[in-house]
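>> Question from a student workshop board

For tomorrow's exercise we were told to take the sequence and the ligand below, predict the bound structure, and bring the output to class. My setup keeps failing. Could a helper post the expected result so I can at least see what it should look like? The ligand is 1-O-phosphono-alpha-D-glucopyranose.
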Amino acid sequence: MTRKVTKAIFPVAGMGTRFLPATKAVPKEILTLVDRPLIQYAIDEARAAGITEFIFVTSRGKSALEDYFDVAPELETSLADRGKEELLATLKSTNMESGAIAYIRQHRALGLGHAVWCARRLVGDEPFAVILPDDVIDAETPCLRQMVDAYEETGGNMVAAMEVPDEATSAYGILDAEPNGRCVSVRGMVEKPKAGTAPSNLAVIGRYILDPAVMRHLDSIKSGSGGEIQLTDAIAREIGGGNVHGYCFEGTRFDCGSKGGFLRATVAFGLARPELREELASFLRETVANGNA
Ligand code: G1P
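>> Workshop helper replied:
Here is what the output should look like for this input. Compare the format with yours to find the bug.
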């Protein structure tokens, strides 16, 4: 029997330089998709997958994130006094149970593997999830829930996977695996392979369910691609005996770590809101018809 996954790590220490100057004052995880910060989508997805302990790996300048997850009693009282029940419910849905969130600082930007390793003592000897909030996934069944369900059958380690075009493989961790149904057995994985050397087009997307052994591998892993300590390299050590699976999730992934991806997500999530759909759709139609697109 596989052990239940109740802890998730959210690596949020990155400086978000691609979104400067906004990220000079606001952590990129607080940037807003329609009306909710990116981090809220990640938290909601984790909750839907049964996660009850949320571990944030942060860095200097990220205190707005801690404030965001704090209760806002004055705001709640003021909304209640004015009878704004719907807004009050929205606000309360973001409240977290006391003690459910832990914050750990990554003191130096040494890579994703290092950020995850910073949470080792909080994870202990349990399987854990990792969610990269930049990867926003729109799916009927939230992506991590899909993975937890599949993981109950497979155990081991599981990474979300998606096919990407040839020219994009050098921006991802790439799996050596046969695309074969939703759950594929991984023979190898390589972080950001040089153009033309990728073992397949199956890219790792930012959702992982990992065995605590990966933390032990991170203890001794040397820097890899880009001079950083790579999570991919630590997971690769677990391959053998069918221990690593790629899960080709159902849903649409938006790369909200890039401006183009963020804008696409804004349009898609805006169109998905009944109260915004008509206005946004007609604006987009007009813009295209006027030749501005
Ligand atoms: C990270 C991982 C990479 C993965 C990607 C998914 O890279 O290192 O393996 O494919 O996230 O978004 P980053 O985008 O942080 O460079």
